[in-house]
Design goal:
The complex is a heterodimer of chains A (about 400) and B (about 675). Chain A is an alpha+beta fold. Chain A contains nine helices and 21 strands. With about 675 residues, chain B is of the alpha+beta class. The chains are: A alpha+beta (about 400), B alpha+beta (about 675).
């Protein structure tokens, strides 16, 4: 997994990519936006509030809480996908208490197996290439370990804003902090073959990339080359869960270009994970996020205007610890990104700044997301509202 | 009676039992503290007030006494009968005789009622012989285990612990001695002049069943008794948070949809056209993931609501490394303040009404110790007002429940402990509050101590005694439905707040309101929190006030959203077919389900249909049948149901709920019988 990706002249932490790209897409289509912490974006043609379209970590508004919860529960997600008639590798879930049954099961289905966390962020934490009972036990042992950051949803940027907070933990015999006994792990047959990751938006399979097994990153854009059945399976796997408007689906097959042999679904993520697509092609991020925003706009009943390459407007930045000091730093950071920023107004008591900004949608979006996450300056904002002043509205 | 009771010769004594308390004290095996039953009796003996505390030990291997269900009922009946009666006792032995004379008819009546019910059942099933044989067999097994043959010792009045304790208390009172012991063939115990205060201090944490006569009046509010709910009996067998994952499935089934249930509060319902809706606990199908991301982060909620002119308390986020900044900020905005986690849940780590910098330091230490103690936190102004949970569905305010901290009201006669017991009895009738009883926590004892009170204190008539300083229902707080009293301007603000959050079809918002009848402009009223989870229970089941059918409204809104047409009426009776898969055979699953079905009063049949499957046909009252569907996915301890698929079937006739073993091999049946006898 990469840590950061160079984008718009900045080093964007990988986990911010989804939020960054829909922010960029909204600005590129001339929308006014309100960006809130944890990659929440509200946008609209006239104003950001009340919004016409909205996203969280790139997940569109039309994905329901029930749906994203189902997606983050591997056992449940597999059950839904199977019931929709889509093939998945043999697998079953076990708790730490039943780790021996897990090994027995692994032997029955045949090594190697993959052991995944039963619940949590997508794509799941997984240990691949497990080849023995000892390996199963040690995979469970490793995946069991927890840390205080797992219980800090407010400050941990790796936890999705809609995720279930899991506060329970035990201490094992060695004094390690571990997940409670009832926590489940998925043991799944590790199927050899090529893994294609496809982004599904509504009824459409938008982009597909071939994944590198070891890094989990896309290495080749195969949108045109992959066989239609890959796209069909990806759409079916996403729609297997009611209320899931977007899915990033991993499918393993012998040859993604043909329809010979099995094609099995190994992951369905409710989040786009665009950082894994752009490594296969820089433009894929834009194509994907444009599709996401178009999906939501359609549901809101309007057509997106054509994209623009340059945007200027006023940004209201709120909730800074030290507005005066940050006001000095911000224009400097902007220059580094090739963005033009001027401080128009400072309210040090409230911690607010008004900025005049001018640049590409990418740089403005990157700047905003990094300021919200605390990765741009030592300070961090609680909200950024941007209203464009385009004469060509 | 052939038992030897010390004969303390007394001339005819006038005795009136004024207040009787019988309490069960749980054992603590780790500390080798045995369970016991205690009777505290305040009596008037020839005009002189006396009080004794008698106790009877319930040893582990001592099967002498019964203190469970039926036995306790008899105890309550006797206590009721005895209290307030003027007795004239000649001597200790005849006094005991007179008490037992009162017991016998009560025992007879209970036996008669039970026998009638059993006879009715067995006559229907035509299996009298089998029943008699089973009785003999069970008696034989009892003898083998060193127990008396008689399988139902609570049919014997002298075996009932609570009654024995009362009898010992009576003997103690008549003896005139401050303490003593009694050993007789049928009861052994002791008495002493221990005060109630002393008793509570030592045993409060171990108190179980509790009865006091005279009984305190049922709690009431504005002259009204607490709400009773027709579905309470159906919900009672469900596990603690059963209502969370159950009520919406019940609505779906009543509206004719079919359902598939998975473990952990998950189910998917669908209509004839295959339109599906999914649920997991309170994770709503009509709330967007975006809305939850906003609502679960207080700072995001604040920024959004400010933009639509919804009043929120002034405040800011801090990291745990910025405590000094937080203290300075509190000094600046002014006390009192509240400290809470920025992405909180269930009130964890929230400390309210912090009045000074020093208190804030303590509060933050308390916060750090909570389960979210490493995360960022918010410091905001503590705004006055009472705690309202307002439910908005599709833009409309449909319920408004105000919560008050746990409390009891004195009557000049009963102790706070007495009043808490009977307040809890009323709470037990409420499906949402039955799992949220008032308990003797450190916080409660602290609250009482602050007012110089203890559980033994007897508050004056009409005096309200607070038992907590937060209005949390989980800590025994009361709830009142007041939506009709809510001023339109308050409802408008609530709707506007919810509308600002994208895709929030159902929201329970928390507002602090000083006066619900006053307009917003004339008071400080603020929105504290928006809840994107489907928290239905507290609004569906208020303790007082006219309840709103929140689950039904929620489900109807969901059906609209998903384009599912609903019939004009919900069914009041359901006939369903269930297919249960998973580890559900050879684990006592059918017997468990049958006992739950009988308790719910539904009729039908359960049978194994394969190595890993069981099928059920059930008919009856809709609330009860749908509760069974929930339970079917739970099963007894050793079972692991993996799914329950429910469809509607034609109504059918049945007298009872039976376990159909006709397709079981004789060997399996024999194994089953042996297993049951051993357990």
């Amino acid at each position: 997994m990469t840590e950061a990706i160079g984008v718009a002249g900045s080093q964007m932490p990988a986990h911010l990519f989804d939020g960054y790209h829909v922010h960029r897409a909204a600005l590129a289509h001339g929308l006014n936006v309100l960006a809130l912490p944890r990659q929440v974006l509200l946008a609209g043609r006239q104003r950001a509030v009340p919004s016409e379209v909205s996203f969280a970590h790139g997940v569109p508004e039309s994905s329901t809480v029930a749906a994203v919860t189902f997606a983050q529960d591997r056992r449940l997600r597999r059950a839904m996908v199977e019931r929709a008639g889509v093939a998945v590798p043999k697998g079953a879930t076990f708790s730490w208490r039943t780790v021996r049954s897990a090994s027995t099961f692994a032997e029955e289905i045949g090594y190697p197996v993959v052991v995944k966390e039963g619940q949590g962020e997508n794509p799941s934490r997984a240990i691949r290439g497990v080849r023995s009972a000892q390996g199963v036990a040690s995979a469970f042992h490793e995946l069991r370990l927890t840390r205080p950051e797992d219980r800090s949803p407010g400050s941990n940027p790796l936890i999705a804003g809609y995720a279930a907070t899991r506060l329970g933990f035990d201490i094992d015999d060695e004094g390690n902090e571990v997940a409670p006994l009832r926590t489940r792990f998925l043991v799944e047959k590790q199927v050899p073959g090529q893994v294609v990751r496809t982004l599904v938006c509504g009824d459409d399979a938008v982009v597909s990339v071939l994944l590198d097994d070891s890094t989990g990153l896309g290495v080749l854009d195969v949108t045109q080359q992959c066989h239609p059945r890959i796209r069909e399976i990806a759409v079916a796997a996403t729609q297997a869960t009611p209320g899931l408007a977007l899915g990033t689906v991993d499918i393993v097959s012998d040859d993604y270009r043909s329809d010979g042999g099995e094609a099995l679904v190994t992951e369905v993520s409710e989040r786009p994970r665009l950082e894994t697509y752009v490594t296969a092609g820089e433009l894929l991020g834009e194509i994907a996020s444009d599709a996401i925003i178009r999906l939501q706009a359609r549901l809101a009943g309007f057509d997106l205007s054509s994209t623009r390459t340059h945007v200027s407007g006023i940004a209201l930045v709120e909730g800074l610890r030290d507005a005066e000091a940050t006001a000095e730093e911000l224009p400097v950071r902007a220059d580094a990104l090739g963005l033009s920023v001027q401080v128009v107004d400072i309210d040090d008591v409230l911690g607010n700044l008004r900025l005049s900004m001018s640049g590409t949608p990418s740089t403005i979006a990157a700047y905003g997301e990094l300021l919200l996450s605390g990765d741009l300056t030592t300070d961090r904002a609680s909200s950024i509202e941007f209203k464009s002043e385009d004469e060509n509205e | 009676m052939s038992d030897t009771i010390p004969r303390d010769t007394v001339t005819a004594t006038a005795v009136r039992f004024d207040v009787i308390r019988v309490m069960r004290v749980k054992g603590v095996p780790d500390e080798e503290l045995a369970p016991m039953v205690v009777a505290h009796v305040e009596a008037s003996v020839d005009g002189t007030p006396t009080a004794v505390l008698a106790n009877v030990d319930l040893g582990d291997d001592d099967d002498r006494y019964r203190a469970g269900g039926n036995a306790w009922k008899l105890t309550e009946e006797l206590v009721d009968l005895v209290q307030g009666t003027e007795f004239s006792f000649v001597d200790a032995e005849s006094a005991d005789g007179e008490l037992m004379k009162l017991v016998e008819p009560l025992v007879e009546e209970q036996r008669r009622t039970k026998d009638e019910a059993t006879t009715r059942k067995t006559r229907r099933r035509g299996k009298e012989i089998e029943r008699a044989a089973r009785h003999v067999l069970q008696g034989g097994v009892n003898v083998l285990k060193g127990r008396p043959f008689d399988t139902e010792p609570d049919r014997r009045g002298d075996r009932i612990a609570g009654i024995a304790a009362l009898r010992i208390a009576a003997q103690g009172i008549l003896s005139g001695n401050p303490s003593g012991t009694l050993t007789a063939a049928s009861f052994t115990g002791s008495w002493a002049d221990t005060s109630l205060e002393e008793f509570y201090e030592t045993y409060l944490e171990r108190l179980g069943a509790y009865v006091v006569a005279p009984t305190p009046a049922p709690p009431e509010h504005a002259g009204e008794p607490a709400n009773e709910f027709p579905d309470a009996a159906a919900i009672e067998p469900l596990p603690k948070d059963g209502t969370k994952g159950h009520l919406l499935e019940r609505e779906a089934l009543r509206y004719g949809l079919v359902s598939t249930r998975f473990p952990n509060g998950t189910f998917v319902v669908s209509d004839h056209e295959g339109r599906r809706v999914n649920f997991k606990w309170g994770r709503s199908p009509i709330a967007s993931g975006v809305s939850l991301s906003i609502c679960s982060y207080k700072e995001a909620t604040r920024r959004l609501l400010e933009r639509v002119d919804v009043p929120v308390p002034a405040g800011r986020v801090f990291s745990v490394h910025d405590v000094d900044k937080a203290l300075d900020f509190a000094d600046r905005i002014g006390y009192p303040v509240v400290a809470k986690p920025v992405a909180g849940l269930r009130g964890i780590g929230v400390v309210a009404d912090i009045r000074s910098r020093e208190s804030l330091v303590d509060a933050l230490e308390l916060y750090r110790k909570s389960e979210l103690g490493d995360d960022d936190f918010v410091i905001e102004r503590h705004v006055p007002g009472e705690d309202y949970r307002i439910v908005v569905i599709d833009g409309e305010v449909v319920a408004s429940v105000v919560r008050a901290p746990a409390s009891v009201v004195g009557d000049g006669l009963h102790t706070i402990a007495d009043l808490i017991e009977y307040k809890n009895r009323a709470r037990k009738l409420n499906p949402h509050l039955s799992s949220r009883l008032i308990t003797y926590s450190d916080a409660l004892l602290y609250q009482l101590a602050q007012a110089d009170l203890s559980p033994a204190s007897i508050p004056e008539s009409g005096v309200l005694v607070p038992l907590a300083n937060s209005a949390n229902l989980s800590q025994g707080g009361d709830s009142f439905e007041v939506v009709d009293q809510l001023h339109p301007s308050i409802k408008e603000v609530a709707s506007r707040a919810v509308e600002a959050v994208p895709g929030l079809g159902f929201c329970g918002l928390d507002m602090l309101i000083e006066d619900p009848a006053k307009p917003m402009s004339e008071q400080q009223a603020t929105v504290i929190e928006l809840n994107a989870h489907a928290a239905i229970g507290s609004a569906q089941y208020p303790m007082w006030g006219t309840p709103t059918e929140v689950a039904r409204l929620f489900f109807e809104a969901t059906a609209r959203d998903y384009g599912i047409p609903l019939p004009p009426e919900r069914a009041d009776e359901l006939s369903l077919g269930l297919e249960i898969k998973g580890r559900v055979t050879g684990v006592g699953y059918r017997r468990w389900l049958r006992s739950r079905a009988r308790r719910l009063g539904v009729r039908g049949v359960v049978k194994n249909t394969g190595r890993k499957s069981v099928s059920v046909q059930v008919t009856g009252d809709a609330d009860a049948v749908s509760a069974l569907v929930y339970l079917a996915c739970k099963g007894p301890k050793r079972s692991i149901p993996s799914s329950v698929t429910t469809t509607h079937i034609d109504p059918f006739e049945a007298d009872d709920f039976v376990d159909d073993r006709t397709n079981e091999s004789p060997l399996t049946r024999a194994k089953g019988i042996v297993q049951r006898l051993r357990s």
